[in-house]
């Protein structure tokens, strides 16, 4: 890499060519001596002038003639022509390709199938350009994060202030071609390297020093068309040895080597990388500015060309270029439709549902005047192109040993936000999951894989941590729905109804992911726009969506026992989807665009168009949701009622399982899967219900007349109702009753060497309860509850919900046996220990961000609990386990209260 202070400023292709020709022009030019000046000639001795000159020597380092390098090689013409001979591949770099911006996109073609390293993943893209510096071709990523449009002087300042990056380099192997002036470089030298940063992802996944083995890496194929160059490499990564297990056990939090389990030999594996270089559109697309009231992915940058701009951050909507063939027609086909190719690796039985999910979006485009705006095509089995190239927006299947997600990333023109390519990667878990072949470990591992995936995608931005897990999460929902409906006798395995059940969810998942590739973000408030009564109305659900948007994570519309039956699935677009497409894609004349967009956005207060994104919903990367209406996998206009319904549905499933019991011919793990499906269904309830406690209703209105308040505290009655549900429904032993004869029949598959231990009901119950404890005792909840009165008029503050009410209600519910004198059930003892652990940590170590008033209340309530424990421990008539538990709890709390803690006053 060149020294930072010697970097070349962007230069024209002509200047680069002259520089390159002067450097690599051939032996005659490089060996010529400089002409002496006249004074030197005049003063030279005559004998020196008459002496014979030594023959000139060719420069051994000078590039060979173009034709000599590619002798007997075959040429494939295109954007960057490719020459092939035996195992050698050269790229022909013409002068017009130098110094001209293009897009470099990278995808993983094949991988190891575990821990975030999966096939068919689009991982990164950059605006790049090729430069020749000396005798080296450089591939540079251009810095597009800072710009100064319209101010040449400031543009120079920006270029000097923020560096580009060198991605790859290769020596120039030939002199310029005598006619085209193009030069040759070895494609292997340029592209057999760690362009995607795989080594970082490998370290994050396996905690082992895998290195790129260039000698055993190769170019698998190279293809050039008029628009792009596509090269696929097979990169070999290896380590000389697998570390021996440590002689002594490591602490639980210490990183440890975790070799891959899916490869024949964990010391070696191949990862395929699809590399695409594509030219930018000659005519940039018109920019459409992003607006906070409608959810689109954006191409964002800092604009430094205007000092008067209040906010230098600029955000452009990511969207496809869509233009009418007949601008005057009310309904016209587009000049170029948005075409999605179904890769040939999609199983035949799913292709019709995938196609239906793609084409469903045409309904939204027809509303704004486009006919057949979205097209689905099937890649033939004998096609000569790879759908990972830059010219085919695709849907591809992939699988893995621990995989569970789907993605809909896209490649954009950073100048305008125009989407140039998109590749939807679908884990096959949503096919298998729909048939309930999902085990307790599949589907939850994807969250642990986030650091690996972020490393592979080349991003540390917090928003990129919120990648789409809809496929696997929906598989968990389907497992529960299928089990419950089967237990009710409403759905038989392997029946036509069961197949329709699967296909409907595949269509739903495809609609969701295609929405992402059209530019749409998640919308986690849209599920609240349909009322609970409408969800029970079969006629309504047959003609309308059961949610406001397919971009939500939508739950199944399962009725309680005895309630009317309506449609279960999301089968069509919701009102928000139509509106969002209108905002980004409505064909508007430049002179009328501002007024037209303002008219569209003016409808954002329509309740059916409610919108909230991942950050609003929280639940990832430390982000905590604030508004109880913004959730994943809820349904209906009352999320709290939905959590109560979740508990009722889980309990119904468990009751029916116990009544049915095991039967001849059952899969050995059937009962296990169904039992755990109920706990997974319930696992989201604490997060949703706890948002009400200290919650705030939020609105995205821009400042101006009629704007709704940006923040409005949740009503005290609703906060108390949510707290009551958490402390009675989830903390009650009665919610989790299982017959011993049922638990003894929950077996495992003994054919497998690695088999699970017996299901621990206490641990499953505690996992749900711990979520509620963590949220209610968190520093964020404490701060919000303490600050809620500031958002209320003086006359409403008297009845405001208080933090002391949170702590006392929680403590009374967890330790209710201390007042009643009852025996303490083992499930309750587990809950009490977890509560005590949190109190102990807060009293002895504090909690980051915990307000001082909150810590004072914690100490006050802990002192009261100490007195109650002392009194309860002195009672007789209790089991030895309960007495031991009470004495141990008293000792732990007493030590915590006596401990000194350094804290800021």
TrEMBL record:
Any one Pfam family match given in the protein's UniProt record, by short name: DUF4953
Positions of region (Disordered): 29-66, 240-261
Protein name: DUF5117 domain-containing protein
Keyword Oxidoreductase set for record: no
PANTHER family linked: PEPTIDASE M1A AND M12B (PTHR38478), ZINC DEPENDENT METALLOPROTEASE DOMAIN LIPOPROTEIN (PTHR38478:SF1)
Boundaries of every DUF5118 domain copy: 63-110
Domain DUF5117, residue spans: 145-325
Organism: Rubrivivax albus
Segments of skewed composition (Low complexity): 29-51
